C-alpha cells in the first residue's frame, strides 16, 4: 500500500472513530444512597439543593419513577435490567459476610456499554457481591473502579464492621487493590474528585460511561461542619447534619457537571440522577407526604427521586415533568439502546426502553411493575385467596394506576420532617437500625391485602381492597403468573471466612 493510501485509510478510520463517538452519547449516571422523596429542593424540602434543582429544571423530572426499597436490589436491577425474582436477590441486601453476588449468567450494563465501544468507569458503592474475584466491579464491565464493595462505611475512615467481631476494616478499592492512603478524606469529596479525574482523563475517541454511586446520604450521619452551618434554622441536630450531607452531595454534582462542561462533553451527554431507595426517618431522611420508608413496600420506600438532564435531550424537553411509569430496571435497555449496543447473551429483561418517553414525551411502554415477591420474609396473616395467591407472602405489584400489596409491607407511617429540638433519634447505631428495617414485621395486625389507586392517592390513605375485590383478584392472578417465573432465592448464611482479619485486614474476596 502506498504511503498516500495508508494516510487516507488512517484518516477514514479516524473519521469513523469520531463519528462513532458523536453518534452515541456519553452517559453519566449518578446514584444517591437512602435519599428521601422529601429531601430535594423541588419537592418542597427544607433542604436546599440548588444544583439538583437547576439540573432537573433543565431536563425532565421523573415523577412516577420507582426504585426498589433497599440498596442491593435497586443496584442489581440497574446493572442487570432484571427483577429480583429473576436474579435470586429477592430477599435482602448482600451482607459483606455472605458468599453472594449478582449472578454471572447475564451481562451487566457495564459489560454491554463496553461491548458497544464505551470507556466504562465506576466510582462509589458497588454492593453487588465480592466474595469471589469474578464478582468485582472491574471484572463486570468497568475499565476502572474506585469505591466501596459493600455498604455502611464510615465517611472518613472508609471502614465497615465485621459482624462476628465488630471490628472495622477498610473497604476502599480500585482495580489494582485496596486504597489505604485516603483515610480522613470525606467520601463525597473523594468520590467527586475521582469522577472528575475520570472525566479529565477521558479520551474522546470513545464515548464515556460513568457510574457515580455516592455514599451520600446513607448513615452514619457525618459531614464537615461548614455544610451543616447553613441549616441553623433546622433545630433537630440529626436532620441538620443530614441536610449538610445533602448539600455536600449537591456540591459534588455541581463539580462533576462543571468538569463535564469544561471538558466539552456536556452537549453530548445524557445525565441521570436517581436515588437507590427511600429515606430512613430514624437517620433523618424523609419521604413525607409519602407513606412508609426505606425497606417497606409503601411508596415512601420506592417512589424515588429521579431526573434526566444533559445536552442530548431535545431543547423542548427542558422543564418537563414526566408522569409516566418508569422503573430502575428500565435504564438497562434505555442506555444500551442509546449506546446502539446489543442484547446478545442477556437473559430476558424486565426493563423497557424509556428513551422515547423521556426525550419525546411518548407514553411509557411499561404497564405493569412488579415491586417484589419475597418468599423468605416472615409471613403475615392468613392466606385470604389461597387458590389464587397466598396473601401472607410479602409482595407488591403495580398495574396501571393500581397498586396491590400482600403480606407484611413494613411500617406504614407518614412521618413529617422533624423540626423541633425535642425530637431525639432513638439510635445512631446503623447496624441495629438496618436489622430493625429489614426484619421488622407488623405483628399487631393480621391485615395483609391493600389496594390503592396511586394516581388518585399517591400517599396511600385510601385502601380500596374491600371495595374492589374483582381488581384484587385480577392482580393476585397476575402476581401468581409472574411468580411462576421466579428463581430460587440466593441468601446464603454468613461465612466466618469472610473475616477481613484473615486476608490483610481489608474487605475483599475470600473464596
Ligand atoms: C493516594 O495514592 C494515590 C496513588 O499513588 C495518589 O494518586 C493519591 O493522590 C494519594 N492520595 C493521597 C491523599 O495522598
Ligand atoms: C467542589 O469544588 C470546590 C471548588 O474546587 C471545592 O471547594 C469543593 O470542596 C468541591 N466539593 C465537593 C463535594 O467535591
Ligand atoms: C411462587 O412460586 C414458587 C416457585 O414456583 C412457589 O413455590 C410458591 O408457592 C409461589 N408462591 C405463591 C405465593 O404462590
Ligand atoms: C385512578 O385515579 C385516577 C385519578 O383520579 C382516575 O383518572 C382513574 O380513572 C383511576 N383509575 C381507576 C382504574 O379507577
Automatic annotation (TrEMBL):
<feature type="signal peptide">
    <location>
        <begin position="1"/>
        <end position="21"/>
    </location>
</feature>
<dbReference type="InterPro" id="IPR017850">
    <property type="entry name" value="Alkaline_phosphatase_core_sf"/>
</dbReference>
<dbReference type="GO" id="GO:0008484">
    <property type="term" value="F:sulfuric ester hydrolase activity"/>
</dbReference>
<feature type="region of interest" description="Disordered">
    <location>
        <begin position="402"/>
        <end position="430"/>
    </location>
</feature>
<protein>
    <submittedName>
        <fullName>Arylsulfatase b</fullName>
    </submittedName>
</protein>
<dbReference type="InterPro" id="IPR024607">
    <property type="entry name" value="Sulfatase_CS"/>
</dbReference>
<dbReference type="GO" id="GO:0046872">
    <property type="term" value="F:metal ion binding"/>
</dbReference>
<dbReference type="InterPro" id="IPR047115">
    <property type="entry name" value="ARSB"/>
</dbReference>
<feature type="domain" description="Sulfatase N-terminal">
    <location>
        <begin position="25"/>
        <end position="341"/>
    </location>
</feature>
<comment type="similarity">
    <text>Belongs to the sulfatase family.</text>
</comment>
<dbReference type="InterPro" id="IPR000917">
    <property type="entry name" value="Sulfatase_N"/>
</dbReference>
<dbReference type="Pfam" id="PF00884">
    <property type="entry name" value="Sulfatase"/>
</dbReference>
<keyword id="KW-0378">Hydrolase</keyword>
<keyword id="KW-0106">Calcium</keyword>
<keyword id="KW-0479">Metal-binding</keyword>
<keyword id="KW-0732">Signal</keyword>
<keyword id="KW-0325">Glycoprotein</keyword>
Amino acid at each position: 500500500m502506498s504511503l498516500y493510501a495508508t494516510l487516507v485509510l488512517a484518516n477514514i478510520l479516524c473519521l469513523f472513530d469520531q463519528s462513532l463517538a458523536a453518534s452515541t452519547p456519553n452517559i453519566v449516571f449518578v446514584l444517591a444512597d437512602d435519599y428521601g422523596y422529601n429531601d430535594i429542593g423541588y419537592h418542597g424540602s427544607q433542604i436546599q439543593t440548588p444544583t439538583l434543582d437547576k439540573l432537573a429544571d433543565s431536563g425532565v423530572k421523573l415523577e412516577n419513577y420507582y426504585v426498589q426499597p433497599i440498596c442491593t436490589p435497586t443496584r442489581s436491577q440497574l446493572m442487570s435490567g432484571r427483577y429480583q425474582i429473576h436474579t435470586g436477590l429477592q430477599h435482602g441486601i448482600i451482607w459483606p459476610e455472605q458468599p453472594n453476588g449478582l449472578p454471572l449468567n447475564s451481562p451487566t450494563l457495564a459489560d454491554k456499554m463496553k461491548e458497544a465501544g464505551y470507556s466504562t468507569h465506576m466510582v462509589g458503592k458497588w454492593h453487588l457481591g465480592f466474595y469471589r474475584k469474578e464478582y468485582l466491579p472491574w471484572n463486570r464491565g468497568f475499565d476502572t473502579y474506585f469505591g466501596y464493595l459493600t455498604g455502611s462505611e464510615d465517611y472518613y475512615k472508609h471502614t465497615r464492621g465485621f459482624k462476628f467481631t465488630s471490628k472495622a476494616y477498610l473497604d476502599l478499592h480500585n482495580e489494582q487493590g485496596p486504597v489505604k492512603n485516603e483515610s480522613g478524606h470525606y467520601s463525597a469529596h473523594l468520590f467527586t474528585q475521582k469522577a472528575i479525574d475520570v472525566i479529565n482523563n477521558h479520551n474522546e475517541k470513545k464515548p464515556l460511561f460513568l457510574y457515580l454511586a455516592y455514599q451520600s446520604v446513607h448513615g452514619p450521619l457525618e459531614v464537615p461542619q461548614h455544610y451543616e452551618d447553613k441549616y441553623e434554622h433546622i433545630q433537630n441536630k440529626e436532620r441538620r447534619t443530614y441536610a449538610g450531607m445533602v448539600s455536600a452531595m449537591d456540591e459534588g454534582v455541581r463539580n462533576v457537571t462543571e468538569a463535564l462542561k469544561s471538558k466539552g462533553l456536556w452537549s453530548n451527554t445524557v445525565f441521570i440522577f436517581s436515588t437507590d431507595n427511600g429515606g430512613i426517618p430514624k437517620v433523618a431522611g424523609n419521604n413525607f407526604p409519602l407513606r412508609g420508608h426505606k425497606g417497606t413496600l409503601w411508596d415512601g420506600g420506592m417512589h424515588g427521586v429521579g431526573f434526566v438532564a444533559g445536552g442530548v435531550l431535545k431543547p423542548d424537553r427542558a422543564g418537563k415533568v414526566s408522569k409516566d411509569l418508569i422503573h430502575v430496571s428500565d435504564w438497562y435497555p434505555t442506555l444500551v439502546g442509546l449506546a446502539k449496543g446489543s442484547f446478545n447473551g442477556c437473559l430476558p429483561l424486565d426493563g423497557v426502553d424509556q428513551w422515547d418517553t423521556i426525550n419525546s414525551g411518548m407514553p411509557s411502554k411499561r404497564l405493569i411493575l412488579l415491586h417484589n415477591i419475597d418468599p423468605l420474609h416472615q409471613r403475615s396473616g392468613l392466606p385470604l385467596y389461597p387458590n389464587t395467591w397466598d396473601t401472607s407472602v410479602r409482595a407488591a405489584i403495580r398495574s396501571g394506576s393500581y397498586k396491590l400489596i400482600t403480606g407484611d409491607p413494613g411500617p406504614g407511617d407518614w412521618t413529617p420532617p422533624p423540626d423541633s429540638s425535642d425530637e431525639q433519634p432513638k439510635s445512631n447505631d446503623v447496624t441495629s437500625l438496618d436489622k430493625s428495617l429489614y426484619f421488622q414485621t407488623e405483628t399487631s395486625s393480621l391485615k395483609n391485602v391493600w389496594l390503592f389507586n396511586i394516581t388518585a392517592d399517591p400517599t396511600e390513605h385510601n385502601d380500596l381492597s374491600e371495595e374492589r375485590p374483582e381488581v384484587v383478584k385480577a392482580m393476585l392472578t397476575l402476581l401468581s403468573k409472574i411468580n411462576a417465573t421466579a428463581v430460587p432465592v440466593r441468601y446464603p448464611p454468613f461465612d466466618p471466612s469472610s473475616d477481613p482479619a484473615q486476608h490483610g485486614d481489608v474487605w475483599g474476596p475470600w473464596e
